[in-house]
# Entry
Amino acid sequence: MQDLKEHLERIADTPRADRPPVDVAAGAARGRRALRRRRALGGAGLAAVMAASGAVVAVQSRDTAPPPVTLAGSASNPLMQRASFGWLPPGYRVTSREEQHAYHGFGQFVAVADGPVRFEYGAITLTADFTGREPELATSPDGVLERRHRTSPVNGHRAYWAIPPGRYDPESRPVELRWEYAPRNWAVLQVSDKTVADAATVRRIAESATLTGPRPTKLPVRISGLPTELRTAPVRQVKLTDRAPVAFSMGFSGPDAAINLWTARSPSQYLSMVETGQPIVPNTRIGGRPAYVRHAVPDPMAERHPELGPGRFGGTREVLWVFGVDGFDVQLSVATKDLGVLRPCGGLLGLYRRIKVLGPDPAKWTTAPFG
# Structure
């Protein structure tokens, strides 16, 4: 999937902690985290590159029914909660829940908590790794693989420090505690806020956490049908968060597409290019609502994130925003090379018309978003 949104904090109007440079040995881990955010936010760095293409093509603004084509639906829920925080330090709250599906069909569930100071990837993260194998250890600044530091069990499960308190500045390398909460299933707790990164606090967070079998999460959207190719494509990541501005994000791969809902705000508050800070200017209307359409948006991230390796970036995307839809802004994108997958449902516009936004009240959300 080809989706990265760089510098979320510049768009979210939320402060972030100043982070010291991360050494080269941490590049791979940082790249994985960057790719995670890229998957979450959709659209080949959408907000970063929307102004990069000069060709704007009008979209018909009248409401028409989707093309009469039968599409296969799915009753499955793409966001299954597998971990949750219990006790958190004063001032902290859960801000994100996401499930990541890795390339071979397994994945991770990640919960994020933030406190008074926001960190780029979250101040506290709890990961339930159900890949069937222990996550890789980090490497030290001199390139040596970190070793396990045994500690007392967490709720009866064997545990160790992957990065013990005091080894590094947590803002550059988070303190990390791991425990095997079920056979071949690992919990990974990372703390980047040095004010709560002492051993006693980290252990208290770990011991109060709940790791369970998958439970469906209520989502703010219902999609009446997806092309079979999308329905069966691996969903790399689904995210639900109350960390402004993104509210719901789902990214597919093979084909490469993304569906995002953002907390509604003025279109001008979305930056169309991070480098210049130019705001988005709606260029059409859809269903009476302001909208923004851009074709063949280039992906500028290859040089910016070489740590992700060749083949992660490149090509162009088709982008559609519709603003002010029942409390949300809807953002859709698809790789130009995969646009044919959406033709049976009328392209991005047809896909948009198959999406029903359920509003900002979680009581009205659904655990069965497809069908």
